[in-house]
Amino acid sequence: MDARQLEYFLAIVEHGGFSKAATALHVAQPSLSQAMATLEADLGVALFHRVGRGVVLSEAGAELLEPSRRVLRDLAAVRDTAAGLAGLQGGTVEVATMPSPGIEPLTTLIHRFAELHPSVTVSTQAAFTPDEVLSLVRSGACELGLLGSASPVNPSGLDVLHVEDQPFVVVAAPGGAIEDGVTIRPGDLAGHKLIASRTGSLMRGIVDDITANDITASAGGTGTQIVTVVDHRTSILPLVLTGVGAAVLPSSWTRLARRCGAAVAPLEPTAHLHVAMVSLPAHLTPAARALLALTGSLAARRARDTALPD
């Protein structure tokens, strides 16, 4: 077994077949097929099931995914060290991130990381639930994972670095009843049109509580109305700015929303989004360790800022 065989194996999985993998790797397909046949013979198991003109990952192949990714990542780290990359003069760090943490603190982290290590690429992969982030890190698809959850996470087998707690705010089009910087209560949103995410998210839970407790509807008023439900959080701010409705979002959106001209009002009382960075206890490349250390510094600074008296 050699690293080239593992690289070929992962390429077949990630590109969905031998033909696309051969194209991506710039190798002849027969050479790729022969390399896999040799690997399967060495291991004594079939890594793929041939179905028609395609292939499906076998149970043994699925078990080999995480170890293969770790081996290749460890080899890359060895090459980095041997080449004197202590100053991080190249490489890539892969991060799984959910939408709101992907706005902030990820923006601050990448901005600072790029200043410190300009030749290292930060590659992000989208995830929409904490479980998706944990799965991507556990499988080795990503070295680090940035997630936001309703309560602090404590996954087995992973290290967790708490970054910050983000309160929820109300984001609305300018010039309306919701004033920028003026704290409002959930009941103040009675009768408003709201933009919401799908059922199951913490954001949607807050909106559902607002609509459920709207006394204007029971009194014969129009009541709070969810005017649109979106899967992609990136759609929310443009919808707010066009006047479709207001939205309840984590405070990570505050700076961007205000720069776009929206009004942002603190919501009291409110829930908090618990933001954390997760990683495997070992097998981190130098670039990933550097980004994790930077995240720890940011978390410590924000904790100090939060503790300062008003």
Largest sheet properties: 9 strands, mixed
Number of strands: 11
What is the radius of gyration computed over CA atoms, rounded to a whole number of angstroms? 24 Å
SS strand fraction: 15-25%
Task: Compile the SSE list and pairings.
Elements: H1 3-15, H2 18-25, H3 29-43, E1 48-51, E2 54-57, H4 59-82, E3 92-97, H5 99-103, H6 106-116, E4 121-126, H7 130-138, E5 144-149, E6 159-172, E7 193-197, H8 202-212, H9 215-218, E8 225-230, H10 236-241, E9 246-250, H11 254-259, E10 263-266, E11 272-279, H12 286-307
Parallel strand pairs: 3-4, 3-5, 7-8, 7-9
Antiparallel strand pairs: 1-2, 5-11, 6-9, 6-10, 6-11
Helix pairs in contact: 1-2, 1-3, 1-4
